[in-house]
Design brief:
single chain; 605 residues; globular; binds 2-deoxy-2-amino glucitol-6-phosphate; Glutamine Phosphoribosylpyrophosphate, subunit 1, domain 1; 18 helices; 3 domains; 21% strand
Length: 605
């Protein structure tokens, strides 16, 4: 949510800032702006896409600047509310990611002091208070410290001064990464926007401030006490951040799933022993013997992957497992058993709700393992242990290949856990054999995806769409519904197939589209009941089923997927739901990669 990029060095700042913002665009894209120091602070901002802002950006000279791409929280999407914000004397510019909870009080105090406010944002207060403190004779660092002492909330904030040749930044709850190049420094909300410039990265921790010039940076606590900061050891990730031949990142990422799953499982399967090895997720035999349960936590797509992981762990390892909506986790003062295993699942590794659940669990004495995509992200660092899912960069707001790799990594973990308990070597080997075939099956399906257009025609005409699945297909139904809602803006409801008759069936009218996920998995027969109940009321069934399965006869639109073992079907059955969402969004002329109101990393609670 909101992206920050900064540059201090010897090159033209303006063009580097725009490039950095474009890499961060998935964090928010309702407005953007840059400010560059060249004697004066020269600033430009606008609503709309970064590429549009960039075409009208004046040619600023100067080799030091900060920039921002916004996802609106306080104040509507207007030019005035876009960042950067400048003090009225033009001497201080700020960009901010986060939410200031006491901004109303701070704004009122400024008004009483006669300061003119130029936006409706919470963020703007930073520049005015810093300017006032400078006016009172405070040094820039002291001025920032004094503002931070009066604010409550979250911030990743960068400050540029007209009269000083350095940038100050501070973090509390919103990520900021510093990159050190040769006689140049970078600041970014995400490591991947800096990595093309340098691999010397340092992540600021909550409660820290940094002072950067072109040659050095200094990290300190908010009280000014210097801290030793450690370079992030980032493994090289696979994958391109560019669109290449694809029209949209979402389509590119859908098609990368065969390759990304391969990256997730390769080197982690041990066929001879019928098990898997996840370096960062090894449960010691003693811990295992006392393990009461496993809890999996995530939001959105990561939650759906967690729900699948829960079923896999129960099925293969026979350990009670439960998944939780991260945003609800802290609401009810959860009881934490320090002997239990906790997994936090996140693509970005920055989701505030998930991060806050991790902290709550740790505060109550238990460890949390991260199942994360972005290397060096806040959740990965906060957990301190866990596994990377190796999806490569995922840039479309609608998550696809990260889902596949979350499920892939959780399947590996469930297998490992199962094998250290009662799962037989023979069963383990058959799971491994099947997992190895999946990348090819994904590729083959995507080459011949079936009558997606027919499904799209039904859903784009509908008032709402019902998604049904049973057992391990129930979270897939939820994932399909989420995808269609977030990019096609069609109201969708996902329900466990058997639960449909307890309420949602009332929604069905003549021609209502119902997407049913019904692999041949042992519970299919009961899903068939739901299909007949829908059909009897005039619904049109879009059926995702295994190829050659006679259940296809019940479908109005039959979408066959390759067969696999029941517990691994989500890795294939999710694919048509992603394609339906993608093509529906296109048919409705929506911005597929930048759906309205959303952002890729949700860094506010
Ligand atoms: C998925 O398509 C969504 N954009 C969203 O639900 C996302 O999965 C959720 O915000 C969690 O993100 P994370 O995996 O980065 O934690």
């Amino acid at each position: 949510m909101c992206g920050i990029f900064g540059y201090i060095g010897h090159r033209n700042a303006s063009s580097l800032l725009v490039k950095g913002l474009l890499r961060l665009e998935y964090r928010g894209y309702d407005s953007s702006g840059v400010v560059v120091k060249n004697g004066q602070l020269q600033s430009y901002k606008d609503i709309g896409k970064i590429s549009e802002m960039a075409t009208s950006l004046p040619e600023f000279k100067g080799s030091m600047g900060i920039a921002h791409t916004r996802w609106a929280t306080h104040g509507g999407v207007t030019k005035e509310n876009a960042h950067p914000h400048l003090s009225n004397d033009g001497k201080v510019a700020i960009v901010h990611n986060g939410i200031l909870q006491n901004s109303d009080a701070l704004r009122k105090r400024l008004k009483r002091a006669g300061v003119q406010l130029n936006s409706e944002t919470d963020s703007e207060v930073f520049c005015h208070y810093i300017a006032m403190a400078l006016e009172e004779g405070k040094a820039p660092l002291e001025a920032l410290q004094s503002v931070l002492s009066m604010t409550r909330g979250t911030w990743g904030v960068c400050v540029l001064f007209q009269e000083y040749d350095y940038v100050l930044c501070a973090r509390n709850g919103s990520p900021l990464i510093i990159g050190r190049g040769k006689d140049e420094m970078f600041i970014s909300s995400d490591p991947h926007a800096i990595r093309e410039h340098t691999d010397q990265l340092v992540a600021l921790e909550d409660g820290q401030i940094a002072k950067l010039d072109a040659h050095n940076f200094q990290v300190m606590q908010t009280d000014g006490k210097e801290v030793v900061s450690h370079l992030l050891q980032l493994e090289e990730e696979w994958g391109e951040s560019e669109l290449g031949e694809y029209p949209h990142f979402m389509l590119k990422e859908i098609h990368e799933q065969s390759q990304s799953l391969q990256h997730c499982i390769s080197g982690r399967l041990r066929h001879a022993e019928g098990t898997s090895v996840l370096g960062g997720l090894q449960v010691q035999p003693q811990e295992l013997a006392q393990l009461p349960h496993v809890r999996l936590i995530g939001c959105g797509t990561a939650l759906h992957a967690a729900q699948i992981g829960q079923i896999l762990i129960e099925q293969w390892a026979r350990i009670p497992a439960v998944s939780h909506v991260a945003s609800e986790f802290n609401a009810n003062d959860p009881v934490i058993n320090p002997k239990a295993l906790h997994l936090a699942i996140s693509q970005s590794g920055e989701t505030a709700d998930t991060l806050s659940a991790v902290k709550e669990i740790q505060r109550k004495g238990a460890d949390v393992y991260g199942v994360v995509n972005v290397v060096g992200s806040s959740i990965a660092r906060q957990c301190g242990k866990g596994v990377y899912i190796h999806s490569g960069p995922e840039q479309s707001v609608a998550s696809t290949k990260a889902f596949t790799n979350m499920v892939g990594a959780l399947a590996l973990f469930a297998l490992q856990l199962g094998r250290s308990r009662h799962l037989s070597k023979t069963k383990g080997k058959s799971i491994i054999r099947e997992m190895r075939t999946l990348p090819e099956k994904i590729r083959a399906y995507l080459e011949q995806p079936g009558p997606i257009e027919q499904a799209v025609e039904l859903v784009t005409k509908a008032k709402s769409v019902l998604f049904l699945g049973r057992g391990i297909s129930s979270p897939v139904a939820s994932e399909g519904a989420l995808k269609l809602m977030e990019i096609a803006y069609i109201p969708c409801l996902a329900y466990p197939a058997g639960e449909m008759k307890h309420g949602p069936i009332a929604l069905i009218e003549q021609d209502s589209p119902v997407v049913v996920i019904a692999p041949n998995d042992g519970v299919q027969e009961r899903t068939l009941n739901a299909i007949h109940e829908c059909k009897a009321r005039g619904a049109k069934i879009i059926l995702i089923h295994e190829e050659g399965d006679p259940i296809s006869e019940t479908a109005d639109v039959s979408i066959p997927i390759p067969s696999t073992m029941p517990m691994l079907t989500p890795l294939l059955s999710v694919l048509p739901t992603q394609l339906i969402a993608y093509h529906a969004a296109l048919a409705l002329d929506n911005d597929v990669d930048r759906p309205r109101n959303l952002a890729k990393s949700v860094t506010v609670e």
